[in-house]
């Protein structure tokens, strides 16, 4: 059986969960806390980062982009990158925008304040409201850019659903879980995310519920 080492509220882990489900590949999940990695995880990835994927062949791959490309090469039947150069370039470009820019501008600081601090010793575990507020203008810019794309395309990278949508949805779903997005301000993005939430491949992600960090009220609601 394929195995994915993941943390439920890790956007990078969710990217691979979403890709695997879209490709209709059976897999099992192994829970790993980013602040208390197991020896088994380090044996496969010396950096101890998530996610790590183990295929039925025994091949193990770590790093979101590396796993993504591996899955496209080994399981090409359902294409999530694009059928021609222009589509693939746009999908990869937008995926990188979320992987690096959105991550650093918005995702990383919010996750640090709302999740990582809770489980880190020898620091003040109380979230800093000022640090969270400082991300809101940057979040607005990213959501406005998404609105611009959605107004001109069927999906973020063009006419077809792609890794661009998967990357965006993975990170945004964690923020939605934490209740930090004011959806009434971004109607186009809300409609795009409603389509994402309606996909069968996204259903298990909407079932995530950590006792220490319960989801926002609208998180699993398809009609939010």
Write the layout of secondary structure elements.
Layout: E1 2-6, H1 11-22, E2 27-31, H2 39-44, E3 52-54, E4 60-62, H3 64-74, H4 85-114, H5 129-152, H6 163-177, H7 187-197, H8 203-206
Parallel strand pairs: 1-2
Antiparallel strand pairs: 1-3, 3-4
Helix pairs in contact: 1-3, 1-6, 4-5, 4-6, 5-7
How would you summarize this macromolecular structure in one to three sentences?
This protein has 224 residues and is α+β, with helices and mostly antiparallel strands. It has helices spanning 11-22, 39-44, 64-74, 85-114, 129-152, 163-177, 187-197, 203-206, and strands spanning 2-6, 27-31, 52-54, 60-62. The chain has eight helices and four strands, in the order βαβαββαααααα.
Provide the gyration radius in Å. Answer: 17 Å
Q: β content, as a range?
A: 5-15%
Count of distinct strands:
4
Cα(first) to Cα(last) distance is 35 Å
Strand order of the largest sheet: 2-1-3-4
Broad structural category: alpha+beta
Q: Given the structure, what is the number of helices?
A: 8
Main beta sheet strand tally, sense and closure: 4 strands, mixed
Overall helicity: 40-55%
Which stretches of 5+ consecutive residues score pLDDT under 50? none
Q: Could you give the order of the helices and strands? A: EHEHEEHHHHHH
Overall pLDDT: 95
Give the overall form. Answer: globular
């Amino acid at each position: 059986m394929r195995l994915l080492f993941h943390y439920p509220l890790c956007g990078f882990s969710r990217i691979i969960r979403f890709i695997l489900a879209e490709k209709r590949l059976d897999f099992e999940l192994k829970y790993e806390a980013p602040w208390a990695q197991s020896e088994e995880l380090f044996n496969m990835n010396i950096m101890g980062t998530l996610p790590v994927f183990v295929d039925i062949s025994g091949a193990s791959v770590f790093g979101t982009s590396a796993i993504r490309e591996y899955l496209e090469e080994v399981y090409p039947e359902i294409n999530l990158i694009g059928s021609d150069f222009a589509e693939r370039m746009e999908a990869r470009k937008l995926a990188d925008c979320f992987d690096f820019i959105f991550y650093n501008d918005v995702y990383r600081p919010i996750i640090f304040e709302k999740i990582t601090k809770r489980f880190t010793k020898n620091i003040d575990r109380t979230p800093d409201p000022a640090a969270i507020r400082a991300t809101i203008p940057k979040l607005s810019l990213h959501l406005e850019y998404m609105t611009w794309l959605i107004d001109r395309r069927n999906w973020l990278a063009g006419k077809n659903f792609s890794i661009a949508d998967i990357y965006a949805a993975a990170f945004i779903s964690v923020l939605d879980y934490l209740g930090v997005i004011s959806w009434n301000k971004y109607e186009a993005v809300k409609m795009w995310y409603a389509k994402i939430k309606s996909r069968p491949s996204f259903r298990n992600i909407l079932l995530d519920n950590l006792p220490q960090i319960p989801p926002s009220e609208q998180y699993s609601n398809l009609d939010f």
